[in-house]
Specification:
Layout (H helix, E strand, L loop, with lengths): L1 E6 L10 H12 L2 E6 L11 H7 L6 E3 L5 E2 L3 H9 L11
Parallel strand pairs: 1-2
Antiparallel strand pairs: 1-3, 3-4
Helix pairs in contact: 1-3
C-alpha cells in the first residue's frame, strides 16, 4: 500500500510535531508513502491549496489512501492506528 501524506513543509521539526508524529509512524511501520507539502509553509489555513483540493480539509496532517479515501484525526490517534496496522480499515476523514 502506498499512501500520500499531506503535511506542513517544516520537515526539520521533529520533537512533538503532529506532522512528524504521523510520518514517523509510517516510517516505523514500513508503509510506502509520498509526501505533499504546501509551499512556503502557509500558516494561513485558507492557503493550503493542495491539502484542501485533496482532502476537503485545511488541517495537517492528513493521509490519502490508494483508493482515494481521506484519513484525518488528531496526530496521536493517527499514529496509534498506523502502528496497530489499522490504516485503511475504516479510516474516515474526521
Amino acid at each position: 500500500m502506498t499512501v500520500t501524506l499531506h503535511r506542513c513543509s517544516g520537515r526539520w521539526v521533529k520533537l512533538a510535531h503532529p506532522c512528524w508524529t504521523v510520518e514517523k509512524a509510517l516510517i516505523d511501520k514500513g508503509i510506502d508513502y509520498t509526501v505533499v507539502t504546501s509551499p512556503g509553509m502557509p500558516w494561513a489555513r485558507h492557503k493550503r491549496k493542495a491539502l484542501i483540493e485533496a482532502t476537503g480539509q485545511n488541517v495537517f496532517p492528513a493521509i490519502v489512501l490508494e483508493d482515494g479515501t481521506v484519513y484525518r484525526e488528531e496526530s496521536a490517534d493517527m499514529a496509534k492506528k498506523i502502528r496497530a496496522g489499522e490504516l485503511g480499515s475504516s479510516s474516515p476523514a474526521q
